[in-house]
Amino acid sequence: MSDAVRDPRTPECRACEALLASYVDGEALACDCERLEKHLEACGGCRDWLGRERAAREALRARRGALRDGAPERLKMRCAAYAARNPAATDRGRSLERAPIYRRWVPVSIAATVLLAVAAVFALGVNSKVEALAVQATVDHMKCSRFNTPPGLADPAAAARQWQARFGWPLRLPATAEDGGLTLRGVRRCALTDGRVAHLIYSWMGEPLSVYVLPRQTLGVTAQYVRSFQHESVMWSQSDRTYIIVTARPRDAALDGVVAHVRAARY
Amino acid sequence: MVSVRRDFSMVFRRRSAPGGAPAPGADDPFTVEALSYVDSLYGTALRLTRRAADAEDLVQDTYLKAFRASSQFQRGTNLKAWLFTILHNTFRNMRRHDGRNPIDVDSDVVEQAEAAGGQQQNPELLLTRATLDADLQSALDDLPGAFRQAVWLRDVEEFTYAEIAAMIDVPIGTVMSRISRGRRMLFDRLSKVRAGAA
User: What is the ipTM of this complex?
Assistant: First the structure.
């Protein structure tokens, strides 16, 4: 019998209804059980409620496993990456006292880095487009390599698809994550702009290396090297794209090799 | 001016096959235990949002907040319940931003639904026979949000009444009442499905 059809219920029915869940779950107090059982003997309506509730409970508990949808693998990996990227969580087991202090310093360190970049533009004579771009890209690279580097390999095909779908212009990524000595870790929208610059996060010779791709030609074809904040930036335009490479390693033949590789790959 | 914005929409996959080495830094006991609840959190998020993409966002936000606030977790207390509390708070905030009521509690709808679903059948006989998982899933999804949430947390995730009350921020008596009525509504919906199939 449905709840609505049974109205109006007696005050005793209402009192017993409040006890039904705990009674069915075996968690009611002994005195409540006694009162409820006495009422159930006399009330068919409440016995019906009890039977329906118990049957639904058993059906749910018997099929718990089937009802639970497993989280997608990509979600598990993203959540694990949050833990890996958040020293406050991973350091917890080692030093409980250190975590809050560390967390306070993270935003401060980001703000300080940005401030340094702005100061460099205005106070250190960095006033050309090339130098300003180099400073901004270096700041973003320093921030990302510290806080946002994913632990695994990126899937270039999935990254390219997602990029095209979200931002409307194609990224021409290599077929595999390991390519030309570079290991693709992730693709993200750059903090510099709103989806207009793709930030390819790589590992290269044990160091983070960033390749920024702008979907327009803003510089000359010749590669220009700029050193700022102990990082090397290399930038050039090619066809309809502008590329900026940032790494902490100084300029050498190996870095020139990376530039040549990216030029040939035309991301 | 450089704007510093976080974007977590990275596309990546694990270096090793599933079951391989965990991500770097993810071997801390707090992290390992927290990540072991991802399936439960996702299942619950799906029941709340009813959309896979929204459920993934909700679980990601939950972990992000949990790892950031890990120092606030009291050791020795229930980590799973703590994570579920964050999940529900995050869900409530998401819905508030959307201008939607987080959980629908409409007693008229409930009464009508129960009246429409009432069947004079032997309950034990009805459900002890094989109920299809899909029917159960669909009957559960058909419950009004507040009742679905209470029944799910109690019978699938096995939280105590007190834990559920703290999680969804309502008195224990209300939790017990929602569980009780939610179960009966579920029974009525399943009866209807089975009557239709017979």
Answer: 0.72
